[in-house]
TrEMBL record:
The lineage of its organism: Bacteria, Pseudomonadati, Bacteroidota, Cytophagia, Cytophagales. It comes from Flexibacter flexilis DSM 6793. CDD domains: HMA. NCBIfam families: ATPase_P-type. It is found in: Cell membrane. InterPro entries: ATPase-cat-bd (IPR021993), ATPase_P-typ_cyto_dom_N (IPR023299), ATPase_P-typ_P_site (IPR018303), ATPase_P-typ_TM_dom_sf (IPR023298), ATPase_P-typ_transduc_dom_A_sf (IPR008250), ATPase_P-type_domA (IPR059000), HAD-like_sf (IPR036412), HAD_sf (IPR023214). Residues 92-158 form the HMA domain. The chain crosses the membrane at residues 180-199, 219-241, 432-451, 457-487, 753-771, 777-802. Coiled coil: none annotated. Belongs to the cation transport ATPase (P-type) (TC 3.A.3) family. Type IB subfamily. It comes from the Bacteria. GO terms for biological process: copper ion homeostasis. This is Cu+-exporting ATPase. It is a multi-pass membrane protein.
Length: 807
């Protein structure tokens, strides 16, 4: 008899995942799990099925979701109170971070959340921040009930130890954005009025006709330009001054020089020559520069990269009092001698001593080692370990702030700042551009000082006015902003534009194996053994469903598509061995082969799941890790452009399931600890001048991600990622890595082409400026035209190449 893990063409009507069969359905709609079906029914009962019309298959997968008492700590006032923005007995306000928000359907559903839950008065979504602002009546609905319902419909809030840090970060970013918008408003107001009062000059109205109001308009334009220069352009003044103090020339130095010359020359022409000046060009230039800054800033708001190890930790833990009663206590308040009770899948919040007889602990979160460790009574269990089976009792040894995990994170080599300069090409360009511009201006002034002194000052200032790298400055944020938006649309989220440049320069790629090249949620199971009766399969299905072991859960998902699950009265899970059950006088066992039966026969793989009845091995399921979609093609494509390496915490036996692609990876290292990965990357960077991209998926990769030129954190959920990453990549999009890197290279090329186009414009402008006859109308038309055309070129080419790469 043989059972295999198969896929069908059936798609879940809620989330779009593949369904094994149509056993879960409502009318013509099929669902992949009970969770998705329940959410559909909930929305249907509240007449909210328009959710699916806005965006087909918009829901989030709920397979494997189980909440139980996960949010019980929210019933504790001491823990919940700091989370509120405002609280009274009749009204409470709270802002929750919902990482699963991803489309217009999410916004629509969450803003109608008050229709689903009685007691919720108002709900508002801030899409860029992925935040839900709620107003509710605590006398009708509790915070725990709200959070549980949100989790049930696929929008589980992220409530962790660093929630306050994230809130501070968002508040800081909001203030920065507000200040930028205020400057844009002031400069925009000035620009509109300056252009309005400059129409007589644009239309060439005779001087005699505008004599009455000409001087008044000119001085009003001068007055309006003062806040433009002093307030609107202040970020550029500050940046340029900081650069000069450090004896360096950044891109803002020539920009501020151009702004200063525009203003000074305009004042001279207005006060001493009764001329129009260049106030419209000045206001337009600053306005466009601020728009560029705004585009850049909102592009960075998509995800918060400012997280540390605490992002993974819960707010509270269950403490057992001397009386035996349970108390929920804030993790920050845990002290040595506290007695913890942790349930399966819960993280150990602080270094502790095991007081249960034994425990199975998964340390992959910290070390990267995929195989869970068996721990005996009296053994130290370090923070970050995940309890895998049965309830574990522990005694806290150190506070959370002094745990091994905290020390690991705080090591100098793990937290040293990464050398990520602002775009080096632009800085190099600015350095030489400033000196060349000053040289041309001086030469032009000197020439006319000899041949026609009346034109000398005009020529000198005109060169500084026209030779402003504003087109270049605007091209950078708009082009890179477009590239970041396109990559983000494909679930490849980049921290900032510097990362794109580093990605374009990369020549080496290092992979972690566990959870990166392989998909831990898609283990393939193949049965070999006797033909069992339906009743026997039902027992084994029920046993697998009762077990908390990941392999048992994978088996349960497979068997439940064919057999029912029944309640078991006499069952027992043996730590590190498996689960056994007595049914009708027969002893059924499911687990390790040595435990199930002494008769192994030809079965040698300890990772297989054995089935036994009364001490006899009746069959087993072979477990094989599955490579992620398109990994072989991806590695083949990357091998032609990059040097590849694989660093894994697994031993050599753990590579058995990926042998088919190892020939594409020249360097493979096993049993790698976090520091080993980081030191390997540092070594090839120093010895071989390698530009390294590191791809990992756990906290154990934090040091390597930071050490690499570009650290890519791979995740099933874009908000649950490793700290220290430069890029957050959805696991399902890994197979497109070659496209992403090549697109980054192309985007940098587009910026360089924009540089050349900017130089062409500057050459044309300088040819007029050095003549000493630069007119205000020419400056008013030429400067905005050059900036807008360069921006259009950069954005247009970036979008065009995105189509080429099918992004």
């Amino acid at each position: 008899m043989e059972h295999t893990h198969t896929h069908t063409d059936l798609k879940c009507a809620h989330c779009g995942d593949e369904c094994r069969d149509n056993s879960l359905h409502i009318e013509d709609k099929v669902f992949c799990c009970q969770g998705c079906q329940s959410v559909y029914l909930l929305l249907k009962e509240n007449n909210l099925c328009d959710y699916y019309e806005l965006n087909k298959l918009a829901g989030n997968s709920l397979k494997g979701k189980s909440f139980d008492d996960k949010f019980a700590y929210l019933d504790v006032a001491e823990i919940a109170q700091p989370l509120y923005d405002f609280y009274s007995p009749s009204e409470a306000r709270i802002t929750l971070y919902l990482p699963s928000i991803h489309c217009s359907s999410c916004i629509w559903l969450l803003e109608n959340f008050h229709k689903i839950k009685k007691g919720v008065l108002q709900s508002r979504v801030q899409f860029l921040k992925k935040e839900l602002a709620l107003v509710f009546d605590p006398s009708q609905v509790s915070l725990r009930q709200i959070v549980e319902l949100l989790a049930t419909i696929g929008y589980e809030p992220s409530i962790t130890l660093n929630a306050n840090d994230a809130d501070t970060y968002h508040k800081k970013r909001s203030k920065e954005l507000y200040a930028l918008l205020l400057r844009l408003g002031v400069v925009g107001f000035a620009l509109g009025n300056v252009m309005l009062m400059s129409f007589p000059a644009y239309l060439g109205i005779d001087a005699a006709d505008q004599a009455l109001y000409g001087n008044l308009f000119r001085y009003l334009n001068l007055a309006l330009s003062v806040p433009v220069v002093a307030y609107g352009a202040s970020p550029f003044w500050y940046s340029a001054w900081t650069s000069l103090r450090q004896k360096n020339l950044n891109i803002d130095v020539p920009i501020t020089l151009g702004i200063l010359m525009l203003f000074v020359r305009s004042v001279i022409e207005t006060v001493f020559m009764n001329a129009e000046g260049y106030y419209d060009s000045l206001s337009g230039l600053v306005f466009l520069l601020l728009i560029g800054r705004y585009v850049q800033q909102i592009t960075y708001e998509g995800l918060n990269f400012q997280r540390d190890y605490k992002s993974y930790f819960p707010l509270a833990a269950t403490v057992v009092l001397p009386s035996g009663a349970e108390q929920i206590k804030s993790v920050n308040n845990l002290v040595p001698t506290d007695h913890l009770r942790l349930r399966p899948q819960e993280l150990v919040p602080a270094d502790s001593i095991l007081i249960s007889e034994n425990a199975l602990v998964d340390y992959s979160f910290v070390t990267g080692e995929a195989e869970p460790q068996h721990c005996a009574k009296g053994q130290t269990i370090f923070a970050g370990g995940r309890i895998m089976q049965n309830i574990a009792e522990l005694t806290v040894q150190k506070p959370c702030s002094h745990s091994y995990l905290t020390q690991l994170w705080n090591k100098d080599e793990f937290v040293k700042p990464k050398d990520t300069p602002t775009t080096r090409t632009a800085e190099l360009f600015a350095h030489y551009f400033t000196y060349i511009t000053l040289a041309i201006a001086t030469a032009a002034g000197g020439f006319w000082l000899i041949f026609d002194s009346s034109l000398a000052l005009n020529a000198f200032t005109a060169v500084l006015v026209v030779a402003c790298p504003c087109a270049l400055t605007l091209s950078m944020p708009f082009t890179m902003g477009m590239a970041m938006a396109i990559l983000g649309k494909n679930k490849f989220y980049v921290r900032n534009s510097d990362v794109i440049q580093h990605l374009a320069e990369a020549n080496s790629i290092v992979f972690d194996k566990t959870g990166t090249l392989t998909d831990p949620t898609a283990n393939e199971l193949k049965y070999e053994g006797r033909n069992l009766t339906a009743a026997q399969w039902t027992v084994f299905t029920s046993m697998a469903s009762h077990s908390t072991h990941p392999l048992s859960q994978s088996l349960a998902r497979l068997l439940k598509t064919r057999y029912a699950v029944q309640s078991l009265d006499e069952w027992h899970e043996v730590l590190g061995c498996g689960i056994e059950c007595l049914v009708d006088g027969q002893l059924f066992r499911l687990g390790k082969i040595d435990w199930v039966s002494a008769d192994r026969n030809t079965v040698t793989n300890d990772k297989n799941i054995a089935l036994g009845i009364d001490g006899t091995l009746v069959g087993y399921f072979g477990v094989q890790q599955v490579l992620r979609k398109g990994v072989r093609t991806m590695l083949t494509d990357l091998a032609t452009h990059f040097r590849l390496a694989l660093l894994t915490g697994d031993n050599k036996g753990g590579l058995r399931d990926i042998e088919s692609v190892l020939s594409l990876i020249p360097t493979v290292r096993t049993n790698q600890q976090p520091a080993d990965k980081m030191h390997y990357i540092a070594q090839i960077q120093a010895d071989e001048k390698a530009k390294v991209v590191m791809i990992g998926d756990g906290l154990n990769d934090a040091g390597a991600l930071r050490q690499a030129n570009v650290g890519i954190a791979l995740t099933q959920d874009a908000a649950q990622f490793s700290p220290s990453s430069d890029v957050i990549a959805d696991a399902q999009s890994l197979y497109r890595l070659a496209d992403f890197v090549l697109y980054a290279r192309t985007s940098v090329k587009v910026v360089k082409w924009s540089f050349l186009l900017s130089l062409v414009y500057n050459f044309v402008g300088l040819s007029v400026a050095v003549s000493g006859h630069l007119s205000p109308v020419f400056a008013a038309v030429f400067m905005p035209l050059s900036s807008i055309s360069v921006v259009t070129f950069g954005v247009g080419m970036t979008a065009l190449y995105a189509r080429k790469f099918k992004l």
